[in-house]
Amino acid sequence: LRQEITPPEQLSTAQVEALRLIANGYRHADAAARLAISESALKARLRTARERLLCRTTAEAIQRAAENKLL
């Protein structure tokens, strides 16, 4: 069962941008190109967002961020 965990009050702008693009269906390479960063930099932003939101997957991070009006 999923525990109720209080997420951080906010994410960095970079983390929000990365999560938004993936949530909108962009592939990693396309999202990175749109942000003018490397794919590994995009993945690092997604990883740190997952860590801050205490999530195991990006999909879960997107859902939790949306539920908490962080996106």
Tags for this model:
71 residues; 0% strand; elongated
A few lines on this structure:
The chain is mainly α. 62% of the residues lie in helices and 0% in strands.
Number of distinct beta strands: 0
- The span between the termini is 25 Å
The class by helix and strand makeup works out as mainly alpha
* Strand content bin: under 5%
Could you spell the SSE succession in H and E letters? Answer: HHHH
Walk me through the topology.
Blueprint: H1 13-23, H2 28-35, H3 39-53, H4 58-67
Structure description:
The structure is a single chain. The protein has four helices and no strands. By secondary structure, it is mostly helical. Helix 1 crosses helix 3 and helix 3 crosses helix 4. It is elongated. The model has no long low-confidence stretch (mean pLDDT 91).
